[in-house]
Amino acid sequence: MLVGMPPPRNPPDRPLPPELGPASSHGYNCRCVARHFGLDPAPYGELPACSLSERQYRKLLLEAGEVQDEAKRLAVTRNVVDAQRKYARMREIAQRLDRTDLEVAAVSDLATLCYSAGDLRNARQCAEAVLDVFKVSAVAIVHFGQYAEARMIEGSREVAERVLISLATEEGDVAKARELIAGQRRRAAFRKEAGPEQYPPELLDVHGVDELELRIFDVRVQIAAGDFAGARTAIEEILAALDALAENDEVRERVVHQQAMVRAERARIHQAGGEDAEARADLLRLTARHPGSPVAAKVGIGLAEARALAGDFPGAVAAIVTARDELAAAGLTGDVAEASHALGSLLLHAGDVAQARAQFEHARTIRTANGDGPGLRLVDTALARCAAAEGDWATAEHHATRARESARSSGDWADLLHTDFVAASIGFARGEDLPAVLDLLLPLTLAAAEYRFEFAAPQARTAWARDVAGPAMELLMALLAKLGEQRLSAELIERTCAVGAYTGVEERSLDLTGTLPTLEVGPAAEGLPLAALGSVTSSLPLRLAPPPALRWSPSSPMELEPWLRLAAERYRLPRPAADTVETWPAAKPGRETFLLRFADAGHTFLTWRTTEDLDTVHTHPIDFALVATARQCLDAASPTPHEGESVADAVRRSLGEDAFGSFAGEQRLARVLALNLLPADLVARLRRAAAGGNRPFLRIQPSPSLAGVPWGLLALPDRRADRVLEIDEIGFCFDGDERVLDVADVSLLAPVAIPRRPSSADGPPVYLLDPRIPGQSAFGELGSVLGKQDATSPLIRYLDQRLAGGPVLPTAERGLDLVRRTDTDRRLLAELLAGPCSRLVFVGHVSRVRDEYGAQTALHLSCSAELPGTAAPIGAHRPFTAADLALSEVDTMPARVALVGCASASDFGLAEPFGVLLAAVAAGAGLVAATVWALPTSAAVPGADPMSELVIAVDTALAGDDPVTELCAWQRSRLARWRETPGPATSPVFWAPLTCLDATDDGKTWVR
């Protein structure tokens, strides 16, 4: 007898599909259907459902619905244990009935429950299980023609996929999130086309509320991809659409919830953009418009934390208490626990340990009742910190150990990293058995640093580095200093500096010829006009490559290597096989080469050694206060505009008496920088090396905090003070005015982990000089950098000489034809670099079109907005970014490149330093000349042309045998002129920022 839904009319007309044989469940009553059609049910297996009466069947089906309703109610309150019990019962009923639709409904709800409780591992497993079962069930549906069931399991697939969308977005896997959203839209369109005859109303999205929820997911993906402008626009459109639906009784509850979600996202955008006042206003409006709603209350907690950071501690505490009361009134016990935890964290930060512990214990009681495993681990780590703050080490270690055991048993390795870090922090603070702390802390720090590279989006990588890897590194460096482990400290610094290039670009996807590129994007983006491609390509997942295996010296491997193996084993760290890369360049014959690498980890750490003595380690911590002082002095003197400052005002400030406008002001800056950044042993060794008659090389890889330092300009101290000096006392440490440039040649050191392509074959030089930018006036922000040139100008006469000596690219008859062209766009660049060329000289604007991430640093060529690229257009112009270069078909760069533009060497100042400077190196450039701050144009000094002098010096050096030596010699001549006749025209503001990134001797570095 068949019970339940009616069977299909026609028997299967094909053999049993192989997918159905091993499956434990095929769909509703598959075995009974087989018997109904006179088929052998043995291959399908018999289930109790086949012997149920109609009455028994209906009774169980009714119970399943009631159990699901109760489970959802428990899930809303975050009562995880009881909700899971209910879903387990629902699955038992589903198996008795052989109802896959009930099974996947339970498991998809579990995925949502686990995600909301922070159990991301089980959330993913449940969601992926739903999709796996869906595939098998779909085969059974087709085999038996049970198409009614397809309609019943469709909603569960959508729920499971939305969990995966949220997970992908959090992890920065923007491409995956977009793919899943596009799939949901395709299926929604199919269901609408099929109509109510095929699908129930709840799957047809009659009012468009489901689509609005997908658009909210789109906004989150845009935020993850860094497209804040697009997200802002979308949010306003979504809010307008929701306002139009607000009076519809059928969807009012969902609309109110979605309005709160969208307003919370807008607040996040404001916060990410540093618009704290706007973010706070959004949060206040949200709580005012949705009083008593769970979303508003939860946002109120975030608002309270922001108030605490702004100094209003009493107001923050009151806001959290109010929000907690609202959540308790709504029965949301899990969120009440989170509120208590947030309140405890504020109190602990304020030093009120007893009150903080009481709040954590309150959260613990709720989370224990709810079976919230991840939440209980957070409570244990918080209670461990409370005990450590009072010196109760036994209790602190008890809580930390319990949290670690829970994390290990859960299989959540991110949680294990966190709990191990808390245990290590307690061990460090206790100060006993520091080697045991090292055994715990060093592997977890290495693992935390490596896991960063698992994220697809730079925002996610940066957040992980800030919140997880960074604090671990800070603690580890302090521990190594206590233990006197200079070699391990130096290796950690070198590994931190070994930044890789962006990966995943082997398949070139951006055609610079102006034709529509083939992109890995979902169907929702198909058919976009060419001008709209900026928003698509900006979200392409350029993953940052982790450092490869490194070698310390010819006679010594890395001491970190066994620790890395331990980290991989303990934290399941992915370690793909890779060639070993040497961390030192080839030495110049007869000239000692100094290798300096800086890394920021709370304080800034320097490791230095020489190619003559690679195994002798010199490691120095530089107090963050000293670095902050150095940066403050440099920022005050640099012509790079401050926030809200015009370019003209920045140049005037930089050429003032206290900055680069007077010799006394500039010398004072050079001395402050040197005293704060150059250790005494390095200065002594430099002078000793220079005394031999062969000028040494100083090769530097700065940390982000020191990216703007003009290293050659720094003065060399003759002695150190035994106390803190006032600014007017620093002359005590100097007998004369000897600078780094006086004793050494200086260049930047490329990160060793950047893979290189071979450079292009030798040929004519390529000049891209002051390109005309579409839609920009010659006197505007993106106007001319060289100013008006004529046949008598020094630069034009120099270019005429170059033309007389042989061909140049692009083809020109006179020097004037190479300046201010309108065709120097990305298409011409690709065309010119496709053939042999000896060097590329770009002079123009360089900027960061989006903050923080190197891939969005850009050259401003003559590119119209219609050309494809990863940057949003600026009016009629689209900048050419480092991501464009990485994704384009520009396979090689010439061996020598000049990027003469504002802060074109600023890659090292970014959270991810793969900007135009290092992108050129990855494309084959062995040497790149660039500048560390914004270059004033010659208009700043009427009657002189320092910009042309700089361009001529750079091109002359790149055409010579040893560009680094020649450019440093030129800078020494400028320094001598500055000493003799200080004034605006001779100021270091024009020539000191010039530097070379020299990778020509890094021949052992890996090649793509």
From TrEMBL:
<dbReference type="Pfam" id="PF13424">
    <property type="entry name" value="TPR_12"/>
</dbReference>
<dbReference type="InterPro" id="IPR011990">
    <property type="entry name" value="TPR-like_helical_dom_sf"/>
</dbReference>
<protein>
    <recommendedName>
        <fullName>CHAT domain-containing protein</fullName>
    </recommendedName>
</protein>
<feature type="compositionally biased region" description="Pro residues">
    <location>
        <begin position="1"/>
        <end position="20"/>
    </location>
</feature>
<feature type="region of interest" description="Disordered">
    <location>
        <begin position="1"/>
        <end position="21"/>
    </location>
</feature>
